[in-house]
Specification:
CATH topology of the largest domain: Ferritin
Number of helices: 4
Strand order of the largest sheet: 2-1-3
Oligomer: single chain
Largest sheet: 3 strands, antiparallel
Helix content: 55-70%
CATH class of the largest domain: Mainly Alpha
Bound molecules: fe (ii) ion
Order of helices and strands: HHHHEEE
């Protein structure tokens, strides 16, 4: 049986999730600007890509709050405060916060929503938890590359790299210092398999 939404813990949890997603969106957007200043365009795009998804999650939770009576919702929660201009720290703290959302916060919210009879909220918390886990994995992947100094270096001389500005593809253990086609700096290159829509282009016609 569904309880009164205005009296429910789920309503508070939805507001907390909304606040958390808005903040995550802003943190990743700011991390994108930091990466941009450091001319790490691949990382900038990765942070923006993730920030946009957090914005969409915020919208999902906001819409679910429509069931309420429109009165303010008081929440009390801890939110991440690891402010940094260092890319490594930004990647590591982002990974940690995604892990917490995926492994503790949203599963708890999903369970409470199910107990209170809010099946749609329970399902959204569950599905968004899985997305946060994919964010965690992505931040972990780039965190590892940065830590190992392999963002622009591979042990494989057959590695393909793509310029995010013009699409030029380079094969080798490192991307060029400057794109030979459009002259942008090395920070525009990422491994080809990391780029959206590129794996389909490796299938020969
Ligand atoms: Fe999210
Ligand atoms: Fe996330």
């Amino acid at each position: 049986m569904q309880m009164d939404f205005n009296e429910s813990q789920t309503r508070k949890n939805l507001m907390r999730a909304f606040a958390g997603e808005c903040q995550a969106r802003q943190r990743y957007y700011q991390a994108a600007l930091t990466a941009q200043q450091k001319k790490l365009v691949g990382l900038e795009r990765m942070f923006r890509f993730t920030a946009e998804q957090e914005e969409r999650h915020a919208m999902v939770f906001w819409k679910l709050l429509k069931q309420g009576d429109g009165q303010d919702v008081d929440i009390s929660a801890g939110f991440p405060a690891a402010v940094s201009e260092e890319i490594q720290k930004l990647l590591d703290s982002s990974e940690a916060e995604e892990y917490k959302e995926f492994s503790v916060i949203y599963p708890d919210f999903a369970r409470i929503a199910a107990d209170e009879g809010f099946t749609e909220a329970a399902s959204e918390f569950g599905m968004i938890a899985e997305i946060e886990n994919s964010h965690r994995a992505r931040f972990a992947y780039y965190g590892k590359l940065c830590r190992e100094g392999t963002l622009f270096r591979s042990d494989d001389p057959g590695q393909y790299w793509i310029c995010l500005n013009c699409g030029h593809i380079h094969k080798g253990s490192e991307p060029p210092r400057e794109c030979p086609v459009c002259s942008v700096e090395q920070g525009y290159f990422i491994r080809r398999e990391e780029a959206a829509f590129t794996s389909c282009a490796t299938v020969s016609a």
